[in-house]
Write a structure and sequence with these properties.
single chain; alpha+beta; D-Maltodextrin-Binding Protein, domain 2; five-stranded mixed sheet; 18 helices; 18 strands
């Protein structure tokens, strides 16, 4: 099946040069037969997840080989920056959607077209090899927006200047193999014991469920937590949860230039502040929804051990939970929304991109496009069991017991941070939560967080 973006262009006439045997010396033959090794660096996936895709690409281009390396997340950025500094960086590498600004100077954005060589053997009695160089149009921004869910184009299309004198233009900086969204994990046994038949779909229902599920002992000791939410350091992906609440509440996270505005008051009120207050109420002993505090274990561990009823996580958490406690009876539901509000979900994903330092830029980008297109990416999604980023494949995952929730949320998924240091932004949000819980004036705490995020741009 041809991908959508290819159909947008008129066929191009390739440069065809014939060569008999191996005696040719023309450019097409040289390009099609010269060995090229594409070094790929990624996290979380071993080479088996992309083996079928790499083999399929090699069948089209026998001169290509791959050097695939999976790195631990904890060491990935240090290793990546060290390798680039020493001139030994990969050709293709993965970056988180919030890291694109940080690595922008090391990326070769997708060019308008790629020069790709092919070798074909033709004839019956007399065999001859036909070498062609095809100038192939790359994925257009129009096709990107048509093929992928909206958040992808919002994140990967960036302003680019080839040099100081060049005019800035929008270019594509990476393409995703999959796209994850924040969801609500729940302990079925605890909900059943509390008489809660269904996981909450709205935040007011979530608050009611939390009060029923939480058991408080003397001195505000939490004997059973209704939900792992409300604090900073011991809530996994607290930044994502607070960001989601802000966006669901209508907070304008940034202005047209990408500068943070979440601390500003709008005509509708102090929306960012309301979201932070809602979040921290779950960690405030004076509130009816109090269910979590800084003395609790890590939110993931608490859920795996059956000590909390609700945990906010991604698709990648599902196999980790099963490994951690095979007897835990849990389900996955869509993340709660504001009753009567606009549906907003939170995107968390990685994109594959090409290094500016590569000597095989056209080959590398051609492989990234090949691996991420609809006709190929299904093999990766099946091997990794991850939710899709492509609109056309969402329906095929809606019957999957695990992936249905995550795939179903992709069309309404959003993100917001586009600066150059995502870690600083996350620390600013965690500090904001701590400040509000400590009783600091909310508006001042928000403005301080906004200033810290602004400095990271």
């Amino acid at each position: 099946m041809k991908s959508f973006w290819r159909s947008l262009f008129l066929p191009l006439l390739p440069l065809v040069i014939l060569g008999a045997g191996c005696g040719g010396s023309n450019a097409a033959e040289k390009l099609a037969s010269q060995p090229v090794t594409i070094t790929v660096w990624r996290v979380f996936d071993d080479d088996e997840t992309l083996q079928t895709t790499m083999s399929a690409y090699q069948a089209l281009h026998p001169n290509i080989s791959f050097n695939y390396r999976e790195l631990r997340f904890e060491e990935y950025e240090d290793e990546l920056l060290r390798a680039f500094a020493e001139g030994e960086g990969p050709d293709v590498f993965s970056i988180h959607n919030t890291w694109i600004g940080e690595y922008e100077s090391l990326i070769q954005p997708l060019p308008d077209s790629l020069s790709i060589a092919y070798a074909q053997t033709r004839g019956t009695i007399k065999k001859e090899t036909v070498y062609t160089i095809e100038e192939e149009p790359s994925l257009s921004q129009r096709a990107l927006k048509a093929d992928y869910v909206d958040v992808v184009a919002q994140d990967v299309v960036r302003s680019y200047k080839a040099n100081a004198k060049a005019q800035a233009e929008d270019r594509i900086f990476g393409l995703p193999l999959s796209l994850d969204t924040l969801a609500l994990y729940y302990n079925r046994d605890l909900l059943d014991l509390a008489g809660i038949a269904q996981p909450p779909a709205m935040w007011d229902q979530f608050q009611e469920a939390v009060t029923l599920l939480t058991k408080i002992g003397s001195n505000n000791q939490i004997l059973q937590s209704g939900a792992a939410i409300g604090t900073s350091q011991n809530v996994e992906r607290a930044f994502d949860i607070v960001s989601l609440l802000m966006m669901q509440n209508g907070t304008q996270m940034t202005d047209s230039r990408g500068r943070p505005t979440f601390a500003q008051e709008s005509d509708a009120g102090f929306l960012g502040g309301e979201a932070v207050r809602f979040y921290t109420d779950f960690g405030n002993p004076a509130k009816a929804v109090y269910t979590w505090n800084e003395d609790q274990p890590d939110s993931f561990d608490a859920f795996v051990n059956g000590d909390t009823a609700f945990f906010f996580g991604y698709a990648y958490h599902e196999p980790l939970i099963r490994t951690g406690n095979s007897k835990l009876d849990f389900g996955i539901a869509s993340v709660p929304q504001i009753d009567g509000g606009k549906t907003v979900n939170y995107a968390n994903y990685w994109v594959e991109t090409v290094a500016k330092s590569t000597d095989a830029g056209d080959w590398a980008w051609d492989f990234v496009q090949f691996a991420t297109r609809e006709s190929q990416v299904g093999d990766y999604l099946s091997a990794s069991h991850k939710p899709t980023a492509l609109r056309a494949l969402i329906a095929s995952q809606l019957d999957d017991e695990v992936l249905s929730v995550f795939a179903g949320q992709a069309l309404t998924a959003d993100s917001w941070y586009k600066g150059s240091d995502a870690q600083v932004a996350e620390e600013a949000f965690l500090g904001l939560v701590d400040a509000v819980l400590a009783g600091e004036e909310q508006e001042a705490a928000l403005k301080e967080a906004q200033n810290k995020v602004n400095q990271s741009l």
